[in-house]
Design goal:
Strand 1 and strand 2 (17-20) form a beta hairpin. 39% of the residues lie in helices and 11% in strands. By secondary structure, the protein is an alpha/beta fold. The chain binds adenosine-3'-5'-diphosphate (A3P). Residues 45, 47-53, 135, 139, 142, 229-231, 234, 256-259, 263 line the site of adenosine-3'-5'-diphosphate.
Length: 295
């Protein structure tokens, strides 16, 4: 099993997975018993896979492209973050989700074993979003730099790279996470999408999402959703750009940072790349997950 060399102030380990204070143990306990509804849509992602992007799209699909409402309410209030508890603002994901009207679009970064037990019993829809782990790791590094949620991280890229390889980051090992969701990908109510496919042709992917969600929308509306959810539009949109989130210092690195495929090439050294590939192949090599590292 994974050995934790250190637990920094604000970190804790729950069932062998590292978490920061905004996901305390009592919340993780409560999430397991969280009541799922048949018409819930779950957005299941490891941090930095493009969660917010998929939340905005999915919320619009499930709410008949209600752009007016989407322009009025923050995405994180329309689509609650299940295992989140902010002690400063007293914002609790479960408490937001419980009274919410259906259909709910619920975000979680948890691996399968920590998800609500009822996801295996109810026919809710689960949209898993994967992103190639090299770009994801770079994105996570910049998020650690800018967010005060992670013990005010002041380390270097090299430090973060080691932490990521060892799974010593918030929400634990990306490798374990990915394995857990890939293992249940053939269930009828689970569908995996890829960040890179969305970058390649967003309207095509939105259409696939509509099909999976049984929400057929016209070509015209799909194009409107795709336009509303382009990187530059979401970066300008105060309901999606997170400029108001007190714990993120956008001057260090904005939440909508680059939104590209292949930024890892400007961060990974040749040796880091070789080590990453080796670890990937050792753990996930036989899984044949079609990640794209460049477009
Ligand atoms: P970068 O740091 O590479 O720019 P999450 O929402 O899971 O935290 O993911 C954040 C990442 O998704 C960031 O990646 C962010 O820029 C990217 N992202 C968010 N909205 C996007 C969009 N509309 N198009 C492309 N990338 C987007």
């Amino acid at each position: 099993r994974r050995k934790f060399k250190h637990v920094l102030p604000g970190e804790h380990v729950y069932e062998d997975i590292l978490f920061f204070g905004y996901t305390p143990p009592d919340i993780l306990d409560a999430v397991k018993d969280f009541e799922i509804r048949n018409d819930d849509v779950i957005i299941a992602t490891y941090p930095k896979a493009g969660t917010t992007w998929l939340q905005e799209i999915t919320w619009l699909i499930m709410n008949d492209a209600n752009f007016e409402e989407a322009r009025q309410t923050q995405v994180y209030f329309r689509s609650p973050f299940l295992e989140f508890k902010d002690t400063v603002l007293n914002e609790v994901g479960i408490e937001l989700a419980n009274p919410m009207k259906s259909p709910r679009v619920i975000k979680s970064h948890l691996p399968v074993k920590l998800m609500p037990k009822q996801i295996h019993e109810k026919p809710c829809k689960i949209m898993v979003l994967f992103r190639n782990p090299k770009d994801l790791c770079v994105s996570y590094y910049h998020f650690y730099r800018s967010s005060s949620s992670f013990g005010k991280f002041t380390g270097t890229w090299d430090n973060f790279f080691e932490m990521f390889m060892e799974g010593q980051v918030d929400h634990g090992s990306w490798f374990d996470y990915t394995q857990s969701w890939w293992d249940i990908k053939d269930q009828d109510n689970v569908k995996i999408f890829f960040y890179e496919d969305m970058k390649e042709d967003l309207a095509r992917e939105v259409e696939k999402m509509c099909q999976f969600l049984n929400k057929p929308l016209s070509r015209e509306i799909i194009t409107k959703i795709a336009n509303h959810c382009q990187f530059e539009s979401m970066k300008k949109n105060p309901m999606t750009n997170h400029l108001d989130v007190y714990s993120i210092n956008s001057k260090v690195s904005p939440f909508l940072r680059k939104g590209t495929v292949g930024d890892w090439k400007d961060h990974f050294t040749v040796t880091q790349n070789e080590r990453f590939d080796k670890l990937y192949n050792d753990i996930l090599g036989t899984y044949l997950i079609p990640f794209k590292y460049t477009l």
